[in-house]
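Margin note from the TA: students keep mixing up input and output lines. Inputs are the sequences; the output is the structure of the whole complex. Example:
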Amino acid sequence: MVVPLNTWVLISNFKLAYNLLRRPDGTFNRHLAEFLDRKVPANAIPVDGVFSFDVLIDRGTSLLSRIYRPATAEEPLPNVAELEKPVTDEVVPVVIFFHGGSFAHSSANSAIYDTLCRRLVGLCKAVVVSVNYRRAPENRYPCAYDDGWTALKWVNSRPWLQSKKDSKVHIYLAGDSSGGNIVHHVALRAMESGIDVLGNILLNPMFGGQERTESEERLDGKYFVTLRDRDWYWRAYLPEGENRDHHACNPFGPNGRSLEGIRFPKSLVVVAGLDLIQDWQLAYVEGLKKAGQEVKLLYMEQATIGFYLLPNNNHFHTIMDEISKFVASDC
Amino acid sequence: MVLYDSGRLAGSCSGSGSSSSSSSKPPPPSLQKQQDIDGLLAGAGYKVRSSELRKVAQRLERLETAMVNSPADFSQLASDTIHYNPSDLASWVDSLLSEFAQPPTCPSEFIMDPVTNQTVVNDAWTTTNSNMPQVHQNICYEQQSLNNQLTVVTAMEEDSGIRLVHMLLTCAECVQRGDISLATSFLEDMQGLLTRVNTVCGIGKVAGHFIDALSRRIFQGIGGGSISGGSAYENEILYHHFYEACPYLKFAHFTANQAILEAFDGHDCVHVVDFNLMHGLQWPALIQALALRPGGPPLLRLTGIGPPSPDGRDSLREIGLRLAELARSVNVRFAFRGVAASRLEDVKPWMLQVNPKESVAVNSIMQLHRLLGSDSNLNSPIETVLSWIRSLNPKIMTVVEQEANHNQPGFLDRFTEALHYYSTMFDSLEACTVQPDKALAEIHIQREITNVVSCEGSARVERHQPLAKWRTRLSGAGFRPLHLGSNAYKQASMLLTLFSAEGYVVEENDGCLTLGWHSRPLIAASAWQAVSDAPAEFPAPDTHRPG
């Protein structure tokens, strides 16, 4: 139940700031949000063995993605002209990452997510592509999913990301909070369109539904998150007039679709025991199981939201190990 | 209530700082002498001393309680408050607390355990639970050398574009090594390749200029710096079109004016010293804003520095007259003085005729970097100039500079940085369709490129340095930062939305604002005040309030 002090300060700070940004009328103080968000630039010079650069994937929607790559031993300082140099190993996982923020907050260049993505590079020996998708409430469903899909197609078509073994791009999707939700929906679209996704990693994914679940009532307001703010974010993201049983929010709910018989990536779902929406996350896992899909649940009993942002707790290390194994199992 | 474990912070700092694995910006120099910054929070963009964490946590809790108790007041707080420097979390929380009516109760001794629903003693403050390894969380902010950084935003795709970049860098490396014949053959190859590359955007667009600049360096030698001069008249024209074609200068003027306006609040005799008057584009807006301020306008003196005009014209005076006309039309008492000087370092403070009773604002838009070249004299010009600025005791000094590392000693490093900086800037210009603004703006930028690449010594005046370096230098010279807040940020962002294409982004950076293209800042604006005593170790608590 006890979280480290610096984690508490970090998450409470976010909570406070986010309260300042959400307006009761459903609008969002975007200027203040961008002012307060701590961002970091990309850096083509390796830091701790990882370098990054930004690519404008789609000019029309200003869709930027940040690419993170490991600096190789032979070339500790990459020649800047070779940022898009082909990957050299037999198998190189490419993890397409969708940052969290309940569809409204944060960016690919937010400091907390830049840090997380850099970790993932070393952990998974992967190239990480962090997608700066359009956010609510200015851009509602399905913008985030469309941007994810655009990024996926872009990644899939990069010759320099193809693994030597089969000249294909080995794609994994990963995301936390709203990013986890995006992972599910983009994976679905990918598989239906014939692009193979090798695995989904969902960290505290954001799902919900119209009814109130036991965990929501029990944990409302107890660990940084309230039902009211969850409701606000869904209202901001879902099409106007839709309720939380919309399939974007509740993929296995009354308006959801069955995944039975459909090819779908194996999933790793991480649920924090102190997250008030865990019943929905567990229901998601059940939904996958019922449809015969491969899914591994990691239930971290004592974890709160955001536990994976700072490496100062056991849950963090457990999760990182599991993610590493999940991605490595195909190599 | 979430309990946190406050007892697990190690007191001493470690030297490794390995927890900060991000490309985070280096700390402001004011924190260099302080130690014990929480390394993990630093990686998240927040600078909090470990010893202050508990205090910050308590205040966050208090704010939360207040928020729950009076939500109406809280939304007032949300909409009205001006925020400053969010990285300094302790100050930010304190400022919110001070704006908000504080509840009379202190944190309770007893709290509800959320799982058992029983009241327990609030022992979160004293728990020393140590079942978690606490490895090297704190980092020392000693004099770290500024992290090497190279920010690339690219949309480049074609193979020929990539080959061209490769060749440019290889050629530059040859130049650095002194292998002129190899460099020359690369130049020929590149000229050929240029005809086959998409020159509409990105690297292809800007490559031609870099090839030219390299040619100049190789064939004309590094003293051929007259290119950067042109005539003052030409430069002014190019500058004006650069002003029109893209928002960088407008952002600079607008942000500086806003800060100056705030600094002059309550003062009746004010004097602005503009280090580079050009056509005086910055000043009509300030004059009008002063005219409209509550309580009426002050007496405004403007001293404009600029190069002497040839052929007997006094262009400074002409601009001064135009501005005076405008001031008259809005009933602002105004006096203008022109100071003609070829170089900023030739200006002496007595020429500015500052009156001790007036409040002074010093305004430097892309000028300070020109003072960074040192000849063999003892004092480099920048130190001399900063020293006399300080002696004027200005209410505010507004500084806008290119956010780039173009003054590195190594030629290849400088070349590489410039290649990416200017290709990003050219990319941003793509959105402009107005001619001849766009074409002339490109020439303006091209002249900068040529100076950065083909000149050395006193001829190389475009010695841009990043914000982090300016912070170190200005703090060391006896200035403290005046933070630009969320109001300035918002107005800048809104202006951009109105007048510019999508893709321009304003960011807040430790109390300063930057304007960039997507995720690459290109211009940085900051405000400063002279420290009246010896330079302080760290900013005084109330640094965001000018005056």
